[in-house]
Amino acid sequence: MATPLHIASLLVHARPELFEAVKANLHLLDGVELHQQSPLGKLVVVLETVNEQQILERIEQISNLPGVLNAALVYHEVLSPEEAAE
């Protein structure tokens, strides 16, 4: 049986002087996509996971990256396996 796909969007605020390092570290995490950014150190990050627990774990990982000031969940959607395949 196929599992649903969880899509979550975060706003990540990083120290501007460590912004490039934060982005490089985010690229190393599975299921993380960077979509928008501001030179002031703000990023829109999208997560794709198979359950809510993975979202919480990823938010904690991102929050603990050097240079990250805050990571806030702003959107969460669950797609059925059929919707995810489209």
TrEMBL record:
<keyword id="KW-0143">Chaperone</keyword>
<comment type="similarity">
    <text>Belongs to the NapD family.</text>
</comment>
<protein>
    <recommendedName>
        <fullName>Chaperone NapD</fullName>
    </recommendedName>
</protein>
<dbReference type="Pfam" id="PF03927">
    <property type="entry name" value="NapD"/>
</dbReference>
<dbReference type="GO" id="GO:0051224">
    <property type="term" value="P:negative regulation of protein transport"/>
</dbReference>
<comment type="subunit">
    <text>Interacts with the cytoplasmic NapA precursor.</text>
</comment>
<comment type="function">
    <text>Chaperone for NapA, the catalytic subunit of the periplasmic nitrate reductase. It binds directly and specifically to the twin-arginine signal peptide of NapA, preventing premature interaction with the Tat translocase and premature export.</text>
</comment>
<dbReference type="InterPro" id="IPR005623">
    <property type="entry name" value="Chaperone_NapD_NO3_reduct"/>
</dbReference>
<keyword id="KW-0963">Cytoplasm</keyword>
<dbReference type="GO" id="GO:0005048">
    <property type="term" value="F:signal sequence binding"/>
</dbReference>
<dbReference type="GO" id="GO:0005737">
    <property type="term" value="C:cytoplasm"/>
</dbReference>
